[in-house]
What we know:
Layout lengths: L3 H12 L13 H10 L11 H8 L4 E6 L2 E5 L3 E6 L8 E7 L4 H4 L6 H7 L8 H10 L5 E3 L7 E6 L4 E6 L18 E6 L3 H11 L4 H4 L8
Antiparallel strand pairs: 1-2, 2-3, 3-4, 4-8, 5-6, 6-7, 7-8
Helix pairs in contact: 1-2
Amino acid sequence: MASPVAYAEAVASDTRRPVKEDQLTPHSLAFYMDVVASGTVLGANPTDSPDRVTAMLGSDFAENSLDDHSMWRDYGMAEFFWIRETPDHPWEGHHFTLQVHRLSYWGGSIVNRAIRDRYGRFDRHLRFDKLERLLGKHGVPLEDAPDVNAPTFTRHWQPASQVSVMVFRAHEEWRQRRRGGDRIGDVCTIQSSVSAEGVARDRERYGRQDNRELSGMSPSAP
Length: 222
């Protein structure tokens, strides 16, 4: 099986050029697969500086800060986070989060223009079972990882890229939803960097949860 890095490099060779209108894919699964496989967004690493991330994603962002030690830039669906010891120190990249759930309310227009130029239009929902199946076919497996938000959400982790995928698994009484809301089995967020040490601590704290059982699926379900 191909490694996540080898897969990402192979896909990147096909996605460096902007896609044409008739080549747009409604789910833009290639983008999500690239992120999970490589641990980057358009090549921007979670440890990159603010200037480097903006060079990759563009200057259309909202900058937010709670204090002098943390800051994040919101590029629409993608958010990058930085920390620093004091105002005299440079910003250090901490992680990024893809707020995939925003698509269900705002549609593909919420996605950064640089991402849409490369990958095409985005659907309002990303189904986890489809993403997991395609990643598996390309040699990028996801492991179940326990999470404090179970069983409302389940978490799935790619060890090599240190990316986690959070999936919406609402309780039965929550299944009634407003139009445009998340659906059971939708990807909610995709996040880096989730270390092996962090996953090990969560497994020790919460146990080795079978996310398929938590979501009401059979462990043998496709």
